[in-house]
Amino acid sequence: MTHPFRCGFVAIVGRPNVGKSTLANALIGSKISIVSRKAQTTRHRINGVLTREHEQFVFVDTPGFQTRHGGTMNRMMNRVVTQALADVDVIVHVVEAGKWSSGDAQLLPLLPKSGQKTILVVNKIDALKSKNEMFSYVNKIMAQHPYSAVVPVSALRGVQLDNLLAEITERLPEGEPMFEADTLTDRPMRFIVAELIREKIFRLVGDELPYGCTVVIEEWEENDAGVRVAACIVVERDTHRPILLGAGGAHMKRMATEARQDMVKLLDKTVHLEVYIKVRKGWSDRESTLRELGYE
Ligand SMILES: Nc1nc2c(ncn2[C@@H]2O[C@H](COP(=O)(O)OP(=O)(O)OP(=O)(O)O)[C@@H](O)[C@H]2O)c(=O)[nH]1
Hints:
Blueprint: E1 6-13, H1 20-28, E2 46-51, E3 55-61, H2 72-87, E4 90-96, H3 102-105, E5 118-123, H4 133-142, E6 149-152, H5 161-171, H6 189-205, E7 213-222, E8 226-235, H7 240-245, H8 250-267, E9 270-279, H9 287-292
Parallel strand pairs: 1-3, 1-4, 4-5, 5-6, 8-9
Antiparallel strand pairs: 2-3, 7-8
The structure holds guanosine-5'-triphosphate.
């Protein structure tokens, strides 16, 4: 009997910090989306693709669902979430084992009512102290939304991910693959590079630099010998500049060096990377500026 090929879009949604990026990376098997301890680090929609013998999963890693702040940025981000959910074949709603908060509850009205294409994923089961709590925790959530499946996982340890992929597969429509088998993302390389730099910033100074920063690739020149990239870090306040620079520019040097090393691996070319800082006051709250900087 021939096996029909299945292919479709999968959205990973959930409140900030539940492990969406970690899960996407663990499933796709390559580090394209960025991971950080800070909430709200994934602002862009990223499509990662996993191709297996009989199926292709096109992952949409949506931004953290905003609950803490008001403003234009949040409305735009919530629109991105709603749009992603309308467009996809399968929704993976990620929650954290034993921890249910108003942030999780606020996502429920955005999920399609039928629950047919929605899977509840209970992540971080490795961090659970008592496994007994799991049953009542899951029951409480299931009472609020008609999910069609529940899969407990540990994205970090790679536990139960095959089970999750099997549940997703059941919900994928039959169809030809949309991407070449070796495609990891359909985002342009310059977007991925901007994400790489942003990841370094969050790793190094994320605690001191809350949300008010984005990375724009201003120049990209590529030939057979290598690639020359000029990247601009846009911050909200003058006070953010010295935080990014670090003593004697040490932070910037380290971020640029690490990002350059990642780029060499990714592009398999010689990389010349220049990184600048620009201050643009109040950028995160002006819709036109957000568009200019590449947000949807
Ligand atoms: N113990 C444990 N920690 C995890 C697991 N999955 C993710 N984490 C941690 O949880 C934190 C947040 O993970 P992310 O993948 O950045 O979370 P996110 O939901 O994408 O966050 P936002 O981008 O803010 O929306 C990181 O410190 C991860 O290492 C897991 O299975 N177990």
